[in-house]
Here is the input.
Amino acid sequence: MASRGVNDTLGGHFFVHTPKIIMKEVRRIMSPASRREVIKTACAGCLAQCGLLVTVEDGVAVKIEGDSSHWHSHGSACNRALSYLDRVYHRERLKYPIKRTGKRGEGKWQRITWDEAVDTIAVKMKEAKEKFGPESIWIHSGYGKVTDWVLERFINAFNLPTYTNPGPVCMVARKFASAFTFGPEPLPDIEYPPACIIIWGSGHEETRRIDAVKINNALKRGTKLVVVDPRKTGFAQSAEVWLKVRPGSDLALCLGMINVIINKNLYDKDFVENYTVGFDKLVDLVKKYPPEKVEEITWVPAETVKEAARIYATTKPAAMVWGNAIEQGENAFPNMRGLAILRSITGNLNIPGGDLILPTPPAMNRWDPAVSLANLMPPEVAAKKLWWEEEKKGLFKATTTYLVEKAVLKDEPFHIEMCYCNGGSLLTMAPNANRTYQALMKIPFFAASDLFMNPTVALADVVLPSCTFLEFDFVEASNYYPLISCQQKCIEPIGECWPDHKIANELAKKVGLGEYFWESVETDKTLNDMLGNTGVTFEEFRKIDAIMTQKTYRQHLYNGFATDSKKVEIYSEKLEKMGYDPLPDYKEPEETPFSAPDLTKEYPMVFTNWKAEKYRHSQDKYVPSLRALQPDPLCEISPEAGKKYGIKDGDWMYIENMRGKIKQKAKLVSGMDPRVVVTDWAWWYPERGVEENLYAWDESNINILTNGEPPYDPNIGSWNTKGVPCKIYRAD
Ligand code: SF4
Here is the structure.
């Protein structure tokens, strides 16, 4: 270990609490005769950390199944995990570092050593920093990987302010809104079960299978269900009330429900009086949102708003499941603040079957400055973070891809010399994909790491092959559940692949930051560092299923809430002092039928998007078993819209707006609002190859139609992906 490693800087900085810890017993079965073993590990396919059993024979993983003994996934595993070996052993897997030999995007490569690859990137970084300043180095992290904190440590230590990731449209709104309202994000106590569950903006049966199973179990036991979603999700079909909200207008609906709850005296007076601040100001705010006005804004009938408010406020206990769909757009942070307040004033916090605010176990906390090394970033360098309002820089560290791409294309306000893309596919994930393409074609140097070639990686100058989660040991700390899980290495890395955090660690050493990093990230010392103050070593952790915070109820009676006032801060003076709105008020986003009615004449529909269970964002399209389940992008419209525009179920259709057009396959869904189009997210076609327009990256890619320019949510920089105007017609 180098002289100033993680544990040396950790001492006493962690958020110390007194959770009761539950440790489960190991199951690692080994049969020496056949060299066959079953290894228990935690899935890192998304943030849910489901328990998996991986059967390994003679060093080859041959089977993956859900772990029925796992404390919260109970054997459930989604198709992505069950097909994971198709990905691990895929013949197209990137196995060695390569460098570009032909024109950018031409698909001509030469194998190089890791030394050459890391050296090339490190030298470019040092040169760019020296010549153009640290802001000229753009780092992008593609999706929430468990290893990301090591890259962020590098970013801070090397003083790099130009950083983008999906945070502004994924998970950050809920985390920050919770923190400014009552503390950690609440965990719905679904297994209790609640008498009522409200699912707001989440296709849980597609994206969070383990919770969907629990919700279904609760429904079997008589739980009432309310669903807020423009899409007819699986749960919308079995809901007592389904509120088909206009995409992007959720906060107005939330404030309308609060209006009803206050006016009908359905709120929890004892809780409001004793555990909240600013309720009187909320009363004033929601006067602007009577149900009839909310109907105009949201397209949800006033009577349905009232009914949903009544059911949610009077059926106790009630739990809320909120989703990523409402963390996108100008209202992202206030959306989540509004819902945090709704679940508070109805008295559902910290009660059995309600929403539990639980501390995370005391492992390494990536937000702790001792871990992130945020204090090494000089304030004058941090101030170079690109933002669209100079006086405020937002609450969140990352900036937006639009602002960086604009800098690349116009050399304003400064020059961007290079980009390192740590996984993910900017071309399918970032808004206004045509602009992203231009920026990546122009940038002088571009390096990327990933498991496979994709439209973005294909534009790189140097490509680094990454490991899957089966190929290295790690401590998974969840963004979502109050637990940490043991990710056990099951097989040796394929080819010469490296884990992403090893790439960041080695880059850090090459640019001269060895004192803050590890000699090797693959040692027990490093893994023990990650376990922080848990009191267990990684060797002991291997024998433990997970470390989690035990469910506790009503702890606010003893400790209050984790805010300055120790109460739920409906009105946030802290936000006010920082120059942000202290209350969550609705703002009509740009480019909607209300804010831009002229657009409606040409583009009468509005689109949102859905994510299929088979694919995590742009990933997994190359997995044959998953493509067999859903070979094409499916765009959902109502039968009325289909009839009006001459589109039948199964037809290919165009979705077009002022930025371009894309093609997806129509799926007619009865009951949907005829003005709404639900497009399929993040499509590209690996089977078309790099030679066919970079895997046909723009043919069905919804981000051809999104914008990504300001105005953003001023708190976290979220851009609009919902409620954008479009027109549809059959593709001949
Ligand atoms: S939901 Fe699927 S991908 Fe996510 S952790 Fe669970 S099994 Fe893995």
